[in-house]
Recover the amino acids of this structure.
DNA sequence: TAGATTGTTAATCGATTAACAATC
DNA sequence: TAGATTGTTAATCGATTAACAATC
């Protein structure tokens, strides 16, 4: 433990969503660079491949502390450690996968989760025909077991991949079982109590956004659009 | 040669990303209400289930025209038609599915696309073991066929579900084949020429966002977080 | 008319960018 | 020291919210 300036003088400034989103990208980029043997990096170099300006990078990082060295830049391994801690990905997260349809099946095998400490430790489905099926080391369980399994395996987060019609009611049951964060893939908004966090991705809506962009750039003229990177 | 530095003086206000995102939600909500036999709706009623304020709803819609009637509200079927046109979902969009791994397989069966006029009409993969396999009415084809198939089936959009390492190079080939919009699922930013539109969803990064929220609300106190709806 | 609700303007709020003294 | 780069403040930009005359 070093001589840290001021740990937290009641300044619980929770970072804006946009900032957190970008910090995730910085972390991934940093890990890539670390793997390539890089030692330090400047805000400009870090932002460039992500199309993010140097001032933005510095401001984002400054939300969480002072990590840089004037004239030098950022120590990559130190920054990786700091950002992992900030984002809460410096430890494992046991996940429940709820709804084992097409999308649920894909998420079970999705590498982007596992590589970040997110580990699916339970699968639930309402369909009696699916219950009992074995996958990997897991068995598909009925929603009736939610309460017991969530407690036993200390599950905190859930991937919700059920049909839109039942998304809200299943979400309610997840909350009742003690889940504190839900990643909603159902194409419908759901409402949760204040203490439960929520992220939603509506793939259909996203694709409509893309259609709009294309339609619009066609209108504007053959060859004028705004490019962007994600 | 082209004598237009600025094509349209007044009316080419391309709506901000956030506005388009919300309009997609309005459209879905309106279709739901239409199915329930509702005829008219006010901005307040439309926004409520989405946790969006009435002023915001009116402002968003006003980007695209005047659809409402003072004292009455909006005619649901008229508004649906208008928004579909604005978003470009009043006609079919032939899609290419590129990369037939876990996620690609899930997207092939994903109902949220088909119900909006998005229709997968070609599947590509680089793996010789997969090429030739039949699914639904489609055959998995090699990337070498891209140019020919995209032209023949008039494909404009692509779902990119390949590993991060090859995402950029495959995207380049898609662009070369004439694709004008890419939905990138690979967990890496890609860069495209100006005339090609891009939407990216990084599921791993999203899950990290959720982890951050949970971590943060734990710090703040047991029972204080910001709820939101998607 | 009285009540409801729009589209739009003005006020507020937040996020991005630029600029620069401080630091290595 | 000279050059590089930080963290932070100030300026700019954009998005959300409130307020209200106009309209049905």
């Amino acid at each position: 433990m070093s001589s840290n300036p001021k740990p937290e003088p009641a300044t619980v400034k929770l970072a804006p969503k946009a900032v957190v989103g970008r910090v995730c990208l910085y972390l991934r980029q940093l890990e890539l660079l670390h793997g390539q043997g890089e030692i330090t990096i400047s805000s400009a170099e870090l932002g460039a491949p992500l199309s993010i300006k140097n001032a933005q990078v510095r401001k984002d990082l400054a939300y969480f502390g002072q990590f840089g060295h004037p004239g030098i830049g950022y120590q990559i391994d130190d920054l990786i450690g700091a950002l992992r801690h900030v984002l809460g990905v410096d430890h494992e997260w046991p996940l429940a996968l709820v709804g084992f349809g097409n999308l649920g099946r894909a998420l079970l095998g999705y590498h982007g989760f596992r590589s970040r400490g997110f580990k699916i430790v339970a699968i639930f489905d309402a369909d009696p025909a699916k219950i009992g099926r074995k996958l990997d080391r897991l068995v598909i369980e009925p929603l009736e077991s939610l309460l017991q399994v969530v407690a036993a395996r200390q599950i905190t987060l859930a991937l919700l991949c059920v049909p839109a019609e039942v998304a809200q009611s299943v979400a309610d049951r997840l909350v009742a079982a003690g889940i504190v964060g839900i990643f909603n893939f159902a194409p419908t908004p759901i409402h949760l109590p204040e203490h439960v966090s929520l992220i939603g991705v509506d793939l259909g809506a996203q694709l409509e956004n893309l259609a709009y962009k294309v339609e619009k750039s066609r209108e504007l003229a053959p060859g004028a659009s705004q490019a962007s990177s994600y």
Residues 16, 18-19, 53, 55-56, 59, 69-72 of chain A lie near DNA strand C (CB under 10 Å from a C1'). Chain A has two domains: 17-87, 93-205.
